[in-house]
Specification:
Strand content: under 5%
Distance between the termini: 29 Å
CATH class: Mainly Alpha
CATH superfamily: MFS general substrate transporter like domains
CATH topology: Growth Hormone, Chain: A
Shape: globular
Order of helices and strands: HHHHHHHHHHHHHHHHH
Number of domains: 1
Largest sheet: none
CATH architecture: Up-down Bundle
Number of helices: 17
Structural class: mainly alpha
């Protein structure tokens, strides 16, 4: 199967499975802001994605319950059907059913998180090592396409057509994406011996030589720029921008920029090492936050805000593309699902905590202090990566 075809098929699956979660975590915060909820609650609402922190607990069944043929594809299909059913049930509820609705949202995001494990394990199995930065770039583009849909188009549909029709549309999209599994060829090689399963595998991953700097990188590299992106919509709403304009400028325009930006890193691998790209993209993260801080301290207008949205969307796409590629590199062939899940759990935990801290800072202080805090953290992470992240030859040896 050609690289382009693999990227398209996996891109469709990543987009469809991620779009509802994006709506929950980046669309609903704007609705909460419009309804007068405090910024600290908006940050706390990111706990709906806490199941991503538990990926290391969700991965052992996938590597333990082994299907002889199409192992990962069968896991994806089964959980995909459960995902569709939950979306259909949600369509019959509303935000007025607060406790029930938010509980079901949590369960739905839980399934979306779980399905991400066999999907990524399948990607690691299908893509060769030489194809992984390209695959990581396209995955990031798929994430931004999901952002365009979940944080923009779906939000506009919700504003105009209501809750039920919105969730029926999401369920239909996931159903169509599942059909693409028929086009993906999965070998029947069982790459995970049963003796390597569960906590022993997690322990062996964490005990590898020079793993510490990578765990620091995967934990903190993306967390602070992610918090900035999460609060972009509430920030613009607080500045008096109309909700539809926010949905279009961040959810649609920002996601389009991020989509194309996510493809860009795959072309840079030919000329630069991954460490160089890590450093360069981290500096770009700092630049995007500096632009927001400048705008907040000087003069705010929508034209300047669009520049800030552009830079932040590119920063998100660049930094996450390189991180996703490295996560695949650090996932061992004998335990793809568990290694990926351990790294993703750490990635998700710091991202949620960062968003919660950001909400507290905005609530107690203001957006100026929020931007200053995020900028200091990004600069600190950049310094650590420059000083301690291994060279390309050392990563290959790892």
């Amino acid at each position: 199967m050609s690289l382009a075809k693999k990227n398209i098929l996996f891109g469709l699956l990543f987009t469809a499975f991620t779009t509802p979660s994006i709506f929950f975590m980046m669309g609903l915060p704007m609705i909460l802001q419009m309804q007068g909820f405090d910024a600290s609650f908006i940050g706390l609402f990111q706990m709906v994605g806490f199941s991503a922190v538990l990926k290391f607990l969700l991965s052992p069944p996938i590597d333990r319950i082994v299907f002889r043929h199409n192992h990962y594809k069968k896991w994806i299909a089964g959980m995909g059907i459960a995902y569709i059913v939950l979306l259909l049930v949600l369509s019959k509820l509303s935000l007025e059913h607060t406790a029930v609705t938010f509980s079901l949202i949590f369960i739905t995001v839980f399934i979306a998180t779980w399905i991400d494990i066999p999907l990524n394990a399948l990607a690691i199995k299908v893509f060769s090592k030489e194809e992984r930065l390209c695959a990581g770039s396209y995955k990031m583009s798929a994430f931004f396409m999901a952002g365009l849909l979940g944080g923009g188009v779906v939000l506009l549909c919700y504003n105009r057509f209501g809750w039920e029709n919105t969730f029926l549309m999401l369920a239909f999209f996931v159903s169509v994406a599942l059909l693409s599994l028929f086009k993906i060829v999965e070998s029947d090689t069982l790459s995970t011996p049963s003796s390597m399963i569960a906590f022993a595998t997690i322990r062996s991953f964490l005990q590898q030589e020079k793993i510490g700097i990578w765990l620091f990188t995967v934990a903190f590299y993306f967390a602070f720029i992610s918090a900035v992106w999460i609060f972009m919509k509430p920030y613009l709403i607080a500045k008096g921008i109309a909700p539809d304009d926010v949905a279009l400028s961040v959810g649609v325009y920002g996601s389009i920029i991020g989509f194309f930006g996510g493809i860009f890193p795959s072309y840079l691998e030919k000329y630069f090492t991954k460490k160089t790209l890590l450093i360069a993209f981290s500096c770009f993260n700092a630049l995007s936050v500096m632009m927001l801080l400048f705008m907040e301290l000087s003069h705010f207008n929508l034209n300047v805000a669009l520049i800030a949205i552009t830079l932040t969307a590119l920063a998100i796409s660049f930094s996450s593309a390189i991180i996703f590629a490295l996560i695949m590199d650090y996932s061992r062939q004998t335990s793809k699902a568990i290694d990926y899940a351990v790294q993703s759990s750490l990635f998700a935990l710091t991202r949620i905590v960062s968003a919660m801290i950001a909400g507290i800072i905005v609530s107690v202080q203001n957006y100026s202090m929020f931007f200053v805090f995020e900028l200091i953290c990004i600069v600190a992470v950049t310094f650590v990566v420059v000083r301690h992240y291994p060279s390309s030859s050392e990563v290959e040896a790892f």
